[in-house]
Amino acid sequence: MRSLFLGIAAVAVIAAASAPLTFQAVGQEGSKPKAAAKRPGPPPTSFAEDVFPIFKGRCLDCHQPGGKGYEASGLDLRTYEGLMKGTKFGPMVVPRDPDTSNLMWLLDWRASPDLRMPHGTKQLSICDRTAIRRWIMEGAKNN
Questions:
Q1: For 41, what's the count of Cα atoms within 13 Å in the CB-facing half-sphere?
Q2: How many secondary structure helices (H) and strands (E) does the chain include?
Q3: How far apart are CA 116 and CA 106, in angstroms?
Q4: What are the structural domain ranges in the chain?
Q5: pLDDT per residue as tens digits for the range 10-53
């Protein structure tokens, strides 16, 4: 019985003594530790692919020549240039600042009820407004 205990003790001592060597060997395998892989961020929000389709589906009927919104404000949403030109009352988009952009004030229904957009219909979805807000935060680029 005593020899069994001595055998177990010997194995334990050998295992404990060799453990630091094992860790050193593992740590020395690569020349340098690998840096953590950097995850790419979301792609930039595109005016053509993310923002314009919202305008086309919900805003363009009124905000183009001949439409009520165009006649009242001068805002032409057919093109990036038309949006960035703004209205006869001033700019609609302040790049990198959605909170002061008139466009977001109107779409978030922070303006008076007679100015909220779109008129006479339900508010744009949170997803649509978030896409437009993100595009403005990213600099409101013509991309």
A1: 3
A2: 6, 0
A3: 5
A4: 47-137
A5: 434 444 444 454 444 454 555 555 666 778 888 999 999 999 99
